[in-house]
Design brief:
Elements lengths: L1 E7 L5 E7 L2 H12 L3 H7 L3 H20 L3 H11 L2
Antiparallel strand pairs: 1-2
Helix pairs in contact: 1-3, 1-4, 2-3, 3-4
């Protein structure tokens, strides 16, 4: 993973972070968040359920379903097939 940009709010605190992930890293993140329930995501952090859904929808819907017939599962299969 490579941090590309950090946007700060008016108080100088991080507001948004732009990162570059490899295919394997994005697949790993999608698998992790996809296996969490709303309750477990809330145990990790307040608002975790909403954040979890946003991350998973972004990866599964916008990335993997566009390039793999089986979405995240197809991305996992492709990752496993690599030497």
């Amino acid at each position: 993973m490579k941090v590309k940009r950090i946007d700060l709010d008016d108080e100088g605190m991080p507001e948004a972070v732009l990162v570059e992930l490899s295919h394997a890293e994005a697949t790993y993140v999608a698998l992790l968040v996809g296996q969490q329930t709303g309750a477990t995501a809330e145990q990790v952090a307040p608002g975790g359920s909403r954040l979890n859904g946003s991350i998973y929808d972004g990866l599964a819907g916008d990335l993997f379903n566009r390039f793999y017939e089986d979405g995240v599962d197809g991305a996992v299969a492709a990752m496993r097939a690599r030497p």
